[in-house]
Amino acid sequence: MPWPAAGIVRAVRRRADVSQRQLARFAQVHPTTVGRIEAGTLTPSLAMLLRIIGTAGLRLVVVDESGRVLRPMRDRADLRDGAERRYPSHLDVITDPEPGEWWADRYGLARPPETFYRNREVRDALRRLSQWEVRVAKYRAAPRPPTPRRAVHEIGPPSGW
User: Which secondary structure element, helix H or strand E, spans residue 50, and what is its range?
Assistant: First the structure.
């Protein structure tokens, strides 16, 4: 089932204590648009929904299954590749890589100012290890996560081996 835009818009109207026409005027949409959204015959665009909920002083947020708010990633202008492109969002950027952290170190190429691990297994293993090392409450009694062989080959053994 798609998200309940009709119920959200009705709740916004009740919270703002306005009619459909007043909400439409504040949100700068046609009055029939509000009626169609509330009737469930029109799904608003994200931009339109933001304008509508903004009339009641509300904001749209994304939460995970446990209710934690997902914060947007900041765009750092100093973390761009040689062609001024952002690094892929799903990769953890490594600033000032140490020897062995860049795939081309073995070829003797000049090390870039930042890089990332392309191997998903390595990235996931390093994230698990980082969470474990920080000792978040849920990992206090958990044993050290295993380091995949591929990660050992690409980044070397973890400290303490």
Answer: helix 46-54
Judge contact between 144 and 132, C-beta under 8 A: yes
Q: What pLDDT digit, counting tens, does each position of 46-104 carry? A: 999 999 999 999 998 888 888 888 888 777 777 777 777 777 777 777 777 777 777 67
Q: Which pLDDT tens digit goes with each residue over 101-138?
A: 776 777 777 777 766 766 777 777 877 777 777 766 66
> CA distances (Å), 46 to each of 30, 74, 85, 101, in order?
16, 20, 26, 40
Q: How far apart are CA 14 and CA 109, in angstroms?
A: 63
**5-54, what's its fold?**
434 Repressor (Amino-terminal Domain) (1.10.260)
Q: Write down the domain spans for the chain.
A: 5-54, 93-155
